[in-house]
Amino acid sequence: MTELHEAEEVSSTAGRPLTRRGEQTRAKLLEAAEHVVADIGYHEASIVKITERAGVGMGTFYLYFDSKQTVFEALVVDLNRRVRHSMAAAMEGTGSRVEAERAGFSGFFRFTAQHPALYRVVREAEFVSPQMLRLHYTRIVEGYIAGLEAAQGVGEIDPGLDPEVTAWALMGIGELIGMRYLLWERDSDGRPPVDLDPDVFEAMMRFIQNALTPPRRAESEES
């Protein structure tokens, strides 16, 4: 990067929105940080490794981030934003709450398969930046609660369920199913799956549907 280009990006980050070029450079650094942290962990990662992966100079890094921790925290926010977008986009246009759950989980698992770093980054946040760990989960849960409350209001799911507890429980199901059947799974050549096994997905959704269905409706469906 030339000194002129660096100077242009400095002015764009000084309290004003980034230029398109600046946004692209920042995104490139976050993508590099995602790969580096996923490969070797936060403590072994370094700004040098991140900039080398991104193909930018050290000076460029400091135009966007103050330290390794600030880029890590920005990475947590970025991954959180993208996984929530994947889920919301998948849920758009669905009818019932169970259909929304199915679509949302499908979006989550697709994102997880494409970005397995999400797991390591979130786990590392517990020790590197606990407040970011909490932010990651609470941002997902907040939208979840609103959706569950709306579904209770129209009688789609069990009115006796606590929406907040249910939201945390559902999020836990998705995270651990993804860990077991996406993050840990490998084929005979050692390659990870590109999506969740359909049989696993259906077994999970049957459990979730039974948990959410109002008691009277569940009884009528069984009879």
Describe this structure in words.
76% of the residues lie in helices and 0% in strands. Helix 5 packs across helix 6. By secondary structure, the chain is mostly helical. The protein folds into two domains: 63 residues, Homeodomain-like (Arc Repressor Mutant, subunit A, Orthogonal Bundle); 153 residues, Tetracycline Repressor, domain 2 (Orthogonal Bundle), CATH 1.10.357. It has eleven helices and no strands.
Percent strand? under 5%
Please report the distance between the alpha carbons of the first and last residues. Answer: 70 Å
Q: Helix proportion of residues, in percent?
A: over 70%
Radius of gyration: 21 Å
The biggest sheet amounts to: none
The total of helices stands at: 11
Query: Which second-level CATH architecture of the largest domain applies?
Result: Orthogonal Bundle
CATH superfamily of the largest domain: Tetracycline Repressor, domain 2
The low-confidence parts are: 1-16
Mean pLDDT: 89
N-to-C SSE series? Answer: HHHHHHHHHHH
CATH topology name of the largest domain: Tetracycline Repressor, domain 2
Q: What's the number of domains?
A: 2
